């Protein structure tokens, strides 16, 4: 066995989570991104959901038409200063679907190939990803992030319980409950989900500041199945401390993109790694294994 293999552990292989599909390679949160990620061989598709005016669960990171992703309903370029006026919670899905995305390269992702598309419904993603993964003989799970905040209630999204109910209804209809983890930075979302859907796996997302290990879930009120911190908040010693305190907790840091970052995080041996470039992580794992 090579030194590279032994440095990671002989049998260690983290789950590969494709962030917004594969944002570094295809337009984020689009069917082309999700299907390309499945073809690459990811284990989990990570995506974000918002709610339309007609209560459809739409796959989008922002609850408005992001100016850097596509055009307005009448085909115009969107002024970044005005983008929040295109509030998806105030637009029917038929109008949202008509707004093109992915027509031009994303300035922050030079390897991203433009593919004209639209913001899909969650049910479409669940169906098409599951169908393709079955054809390829590779099981793919879902990490569904609910974007929510107290200041956005009834403005950009419904209140937590209704938001959770709408999303879980889609998961139940698709038969995807058992293969899905629900993610949120908003403790209220996870609390509502745990109360009404105790069998649904939950992940607390953390950015900016990581509380003391013993206080990680004080505000949440319970230990979720997964912790998803910004990887930059972690260190090898901190990861070990989290493992010692919460031996059943799964750790899936985000968003790890460069080869140097991936190499560092791999040495911590998390349960999964969320990345915009699943091809890079998969290539590294091929070397190690």
From TrEMBL:
> What protein name does the entry list?
Glycerophosphodiester phosphodiesterase
Highest taxon in the source lineage: Bacteria
Q: Which Gene3D superfamilies match?
A: Phosphatidylinositol (PI) phosphodiesterase
Query: Entry's PANTHER family?
Result: GLYCEROPHOSPHODIESTER PHOSPHODIESTERASE, GLYCEROPHOSPHORYL DIESTER PHOSPHODIESTERASE
Which is one GO molecular function term here? phosphoric diester hydrolase activity
Record-linked InterPro entries: GP_PDE_dom, PLC-like_Pdiesterase_TIM-brl
Taxonomy of origin reads: Bacteria, Pseudomonadati, Bacteroidota, Cytophagia, Cytophagales
Question: In this protein, which residues make up the domain named GP-PDE?
Answer: 14-285
Q: Name one GO biological process term.
A: lipid metabolic process
Query: Which region ranges are annotated with the description Disordered?
Result: 1-23
Q: What organism is the protein native to?
A: Hymenobacter setariae
